[in-house]
Amino acid sequence: MQQIVGQQRTKDFLSALAAGGRVPHALLFLSTTGGGGLAMALTFAQLLQCEKAGGAQETDDGGLFGPAEPVERDIPGRLEACGECSACRKAAQNIHPDIHFSFPTIGTNAVSTDFLKEWRAFLSETPYADANSWLQRLGAENKQGNINKEECNAILKKLSLKAFEGRYKILIMWLPEYLGKEGNRLLKLIEEPPEQTIFLLVAENQDLILNTILSRCQLVKLDPLSDEEIAQGLVAQRGLTLDRARQIAFLSGGDFGAALHVADTPANDDAQLLLDWLRKCWRGHAVEIVRWTEEFARLGRENQKQFLQYGLHFLREMLSLISTGSPNLRLRPDELATAQNMAKVLDFQKIVQIVGLLNDNVYYIERNANPKILFLDTSIQMHRIMKS
Question: Which secondary-structure segment (H or E) carries 172?
């Protein structure tokens, strides 16, 4: 589990489950977006299938506590998968025949097996991405993703068969929130699974999952990632300098997937770009604003989204500065000086209005709005807010 960023407490807990031979038949990993729930489930599935792991006994009590009769299941006794056996190699490539996947899809009667090629490519890039990134890869645009009844029926069919070559049949379901009421079709299967069957559910919003499913799972809450853990992960996985990694970590808000996305996007001086834009909006010179929007439109959608996310981060820190007066902000020294100067001319309500504009722009950019028209209109609105 070394490749997982942070989460040492959860790693120790899962390692103890495997080593002690007490693996519940259904685990629900609950993490924030980009917090590592899917990465943890993938790694734990590999550990359970590892051919070189030892054979302890498991108590079939569906959890860690209470009396139960021992049953013979060769539970791995190692704290880490070997990474070398056939099962580990297949699991690492997400092609193990006894590790099944279920995830949100789009389209009538669509099931996960229709998108396995895209799914494996998605995981190979990073298991820390969010649902929107996945659904946009499928061409969702404004369509809603879901896990439909056809997918539930396919799960019932797949898990009714015996394991092909692994120790278990494992189902990794990413975002069971998308099940909705269709989750009722899986209740009996989760409560009384076939022999050697384990469910690993990965969720981000516990409130959107049926209580009847929650009650059948052992809940594993992952800890929020700290800025330093994200920074160290960026250094290890992207080879960034620690200073640059910490800058990105400040912006990520505990989302390692977002941090990786920023690290993989060609760097722009978003701080200087934002300051230049705000100055032009303050002055309200039409020619300057038009030139700025034309140059900004050439950056491309991903860079524009990154800029807006930085702008939101900067303005939220400004709100904290105005509200508390404390200079202990998630800003670099030069950014802090800029925020302190701007706080002299922009009050709380004006900043809140500008934050609302930038939030709207993120939504419009994701839906391919014309950046010249969008940012010209936003610049005019910002000038009116500043001068009101």
Answer: strand 169-174
Q: How far apart are CA 196 and CA 75, in angstroms?
A: 10
pTM confidence score:
0.72
Non-local CB neighbours of 36 within 8 Å, separated by 6+ positions: 4, 5, 6, 7, 127, 128, 222, 225, 256
φ, ψ of residue 289 to 5 degrees: the values are -65, -40
Written as one string, the DSSP assignment of 79-92 is: SS--S-SHHHHHHH
Encoded tokens for 82: 């070997």
Q: Which numeric CATH code is attached to 270-387?
A: 1.20.272
Report d(CA 127, CA 101) in Å as an integer: 13
A 10 A CB-CB count for 193 gives 18
| Model pLDDT for residues 285-307, shown as the tens digit of each residue | 999 999 999 999 888 777 788 78
Compute the CA torsion angle 6, 147, 197, 79 (nearest 10 deg): -10
**Phi and psi (nearest 5°) for 220?**
-120, 105
Q: Does domain 8-224 have CATH number 3.40.50.300?
A: yes
Q: Can you tell me whether residue 169 is helix, strand or coil?
A: strand
* Cα–Cα nearest to 138, from 96, 184, 90, 178: 178
Q: Using alpha carbons, select from 198, 2, 162 the residue that is nearest to residue 81.
A: 2
